[in-house]
Amino acid sequence: MYAGFIIAFILCFFTSLLNEENAGSLLSGYNTMSDERKKNVDFKGIVKIHKIVFYSISAYLVVISLINLFVDNLKFMFIAMTLGLSWGFIPLFFLGSNHDKNVYKPWELWFQRFMFAFLFLGGLIVSYFIFITPLNELTSNNL
User: Fold this and answer.
1) How far apart, in whole angstroms, are the C-alpha atoms of residue 115 and residue 11?
2) 58 and which of 7, 8, 42, 71 could share a cystine (Cβ 3.0–4.6 Å)?
3) Nearest CA to 8 among 80, 73, 115?
4) What InterPro entries does this protein's entry cite (predicted)?
5) Burial of 89 (0-12, 13-18, 19+ CB in 10 A)
6) What is the pLDDT of residues 30-42, one digit of tens each?
7) Separation between Cα atoms, residue 113 and residue 95, nearest integer Å
């Protein structure tokens, strides 16, 4: 019941650690870039986008958890959290590319598209399986 609050707290905590000074070491992939590619990345913009996206996901999880306190529907909670966590990261693909002016190889672009499709379709598929699963199987202690 309190999983949404816990996940939101963890996301907020790690997001609060991110700033412009330590972004190079905390954001994945930057420390392995060459110096010429690092020059094409606007870290102020990327840090701002990361904070907006992660705080938005956290706020969404808190709202869903508050709703769940008053409306006792476990399937709603599972589906809403699944969609929020999988679809919440999708804006990073679109908004982050505005602050990265590097030219990427075709396989890198296809990998980004694959991850976008994986997050979108994966959230839908997992939500569908949660929806068709009987409630007593979702709440059993045999998991």
Assistant:
1) 20
2) 8
3) 80
4) UCP037672 (IPR017259)
5) middle
6) 667 777 777 777 7
7) 14
